[in-house]
Write a structure and sequence with these properties.
Elements lengths: L1 H26 L5 H49 L5 H84 L2 H11 L6 E5 L2 E2 L8 H9 L12 E3 L14
Parallel strand pairs: 1-3
Antiparallel strand pairs: 1-2
The structure holds zinc ion.
Zinc ion binds next to loops.
């Protein structure tokens, strides 16, 4: 029975190695969370600046179109003015031309202001683009490191799994079934009794049961958590050890 316990502990050791590797794999992406956040923020800033620039370009095209319209209107008025002989009608035309001229002046002012904004925002777009590229490079480099580490861990897991298959094959099938049932629900299915308490759930084990475990006729379970129990002296000596 001691031999079986040792085999179970070897199996447990490799299962722990697999669990540890899986936990590492889960945690690794957190290492690039800050870089990802900075990259996403830089991307948003760049996209927003680009959108502002596009809006300004649209406003500029709108003013240009209006200027074309008003310019054409002015040309028509000027052409008609030459044909007018009536003084009152002439005055009305002059007034209308003044109005159009004011509209043109306002549109030209607006265009100048928009052009100035376009210049400013174009610089911002270039800056944001640079920031975005920098953060993307940093993130991608860090991400590549994490991916590489994940790949190494995956290889380790493959090795551990192969070890597990070997080790499980050496365990008594009935005992293995009990172990597998426990390990499906909790870690450390095999625990030592320390000072009369279960090493898994830390509840006291009845002295009678402790004696039975020591006699080692068969592997007993903790009455509280159902883990498989042993006393340290049963397995004194070397375990094979899982590779890390
Ligand atoms: Zn227990």
């Amino acid at each position: 029975m001691q031999e079986q316990l040792r085999l179970l502990l070897d199996l447990q050791e490799v299962d722990e190695a697999i669990t540890g590797a899986r936990l590492k794999q889960k945690k690794l992406p957190e290492q690039v969370a800050a870089e990802l956040a900075a990259f996403t923020e830089a991307e948003t800033g760049f996209v927003e600046a680009e959108r502002t620039l596009a809006e300004l370009e649209a406003a500029r095209r709108d003013r240009e179109a209006q200027l074309d319209d008003q310019g054409a209107h002015m040309q028509r008025l000027k052409a008609r003015l030459k044909e007018i002989t009536n003084t009152r009608e002439y005055q009305a035309y002059i007034q209308e031309m003044d109005g159009v001229q004011r509209a043109i002046g306002k549109l030209e002012e607006e265009t100048l202001s928009i052009l100035a904004d376009i210049e400013t925002i174009s610089e911002q777009v270039a800056e944001r683009r640079k920031e975005f590229d920098t953060h993307r490079e940093v993130y991608e480099a860090e991400r590549a490191k994490v991916d590489e580490a994940l790949g190494h861990i995956e290889k380790d897991v493959e090795t551990f799994k192969a070890q597990r298959t070997e080790r499980a094959a050496r365990v008594d099938p009935t005992l293995l079934k009990r172990y597998e049932r426990i390990v499906a629900g909790m870690r450390h299915p095999v625990v030592a009794i320390n000072d009369g308490a279960c090493g898994g759930c830390h509840m006291n084990i009845p002295p009678q049961l402790v004696s039975e475990v020591k006699r080692a006729g068969r592997v007993h379970e903790c009455p509280h958590c159902q883990r498989l129990l042993y006393v340290p002296e049963q397995v004194a000596g070397q375990t094979t050890g899982a590779g890390h």
